Automatic annotation (TrEMBL):
Gene3D superfamilies (UniProt xref): Apoptosis, Tumor Necrosis Factor Receptor Associated Protein 2, Chain A, Potassium Channel Kv1.1, Chain A
Residue ranges of every copy of the MATH domain listed in the record: 6-134
PANTHER family assigned: BTB/POZ AND MATH DOMAIN-CONTAINING PROTEIN 1, BTB_POZ AND MATH DOMAIN-CONTAINING PROTEIN 3
Bias kind Polar residues: ranges: 515-525
Source organism superkingdom: Eukaryota
Domain BTB: 172-239, 288-355
Biological process terms in GO annotation: protein ubiquitination
CDD domains linked to this entry: BTB_POZ_BPM_plant, MATH
Pathway(s) served: Protein modification; protein ubiquitination
Name of protein: BTB/POZ and MATH domain-containing protein 3
Amino acid sequence: MPTTIDGFHQFNVNEYSRLKEMDVRSYISSDTFAVGGYDWAIFFYPHGDKADTEYVSVFLGLTNDCEEALASYELTLLDQSGKGSHYVNSSGGRIYENLDDWRTMWGYRLFMKKLSLESSDYLKDDSLSFCCTVRVVHGWKIPKKLITNIPPPPSGMLEKDFKYLLDSETGSDIVFNVKDYTFKAHKVILAARSPVFKAQFYGLLGNPALEEVELMDIEPSVFKALLSFIYSDKLPDSQEFTGSMSHMLEFFLHGWNIPKKLITNIPPPPSGMLEKDFKYLLDSETGCDIVFNVKDYTFKAHKVILAARSPVFKAQFYGLLGNPALEEVELMDIEPSVFKALLSFIYSDKLPDSQEFTGSMSHMIQHLLVAADRYGLDGLKQLCEAKLCETLNVDMVLTTLTIAHDHNFSQLKTICMDFAKEHFTGVSRPKGCKYIEMARPQLKRELLEHIKSKYYVGTLPFRQRGLITRIGIRQHNVIQGAFGKFARYELLSSTGTEVGTRMGTGTGSGKRQHPTIQETALGNS
């Protein structure tokens, strides 16, 4: 079971007025203090840890060599007037690491405006006083594994959608009067599943305009079960039957003239018949009532099936402002091959074979993901995300990241960001970087902030407190070549909320060195 250990430390900053001589990103720190078997220190940046800011920054950092620690903290700036109006900031659990020359620090980049601080009761006799309570969690396993994949959608969505269509009666166009009961259904779905219904509605002697059928030689409960199987490939729950299950099955046997040979078991029908029947309905175009003109291609489909699977199509054909009589739709903003794959999924819950795609499979899946989002096909969205994760590589990660960012696919975006961080050498080739810089400059900044946690060494050489050296990017020539000085010299987060930064000793080219600051001259904790 996890256990917690609390510790407290007070950090006094004396001769505050002398800190005005320090540069931006320069800091003073407390003496180290031990809590929970780890050594900690408070780091105070009187001019902030980022250029062009009017705020002071305060961080809590792990200073001893260890693998990692899980801790929360409460950081308080004491009101020295005696009024008790202390300035309190706290955090939940945070992971702190100190591996080789890398360190994670958590705290507040925009802790308080300098002008506000200097005119407040927090500053007295040219001194500040910080109190920090650290709570370390022991016995808690911190997962290291990154999320690298998204599971495919659950099976059975096709049956669920069509069963709901039956129950909701949306777009129904045929009524069956079975003794004293009435059942509404859809001719194209009945025809897709039964050759008898297909001949009755769409055969040479069939009547596609038929609206009502009388059935007096079948029990209502049996017909209800028949419809349930047609729409879902499953029998209803046994409690929905009237009478015994064996009596119900005996009726089927008698009606279909199945010989009563003594057989102890019969294997169930093969799976996938529902998908097969509806895919054949799409390919055969039987009973189609809507045409899509997609650039130079034409696709025929069935409104009720589209509505059963997509809330967008449902609203377009059967919503309050929909048009159930609509016969033709023009689509100029989607590729024909993408729309064909979209229809294939709607009818079968599967993607077409890869040989049916034109161009790159991954490129097609990217476009299909956008189309799935447009038409509200959650199952297809999840399937596309899963496929993209399986095939993620340095050539496509930035375009996939852009799609995930634009359409708010948060899990896919996280996976792409982590992949880019782990494979930055390949991802940072000029073509890809130029693409994301031109297309989504804000996303570029967000990506660099994420990558910084692995490749960027910031401003904290913990063995020489006060020596600020803006150097040391691991493989910094790669980052500089791809993104220039923007990534090399700036911390990218500009929010006023708690932020985490990775900082370290820095062993790079020696750019932007600041003077050494002696903590003893400025006031010890």
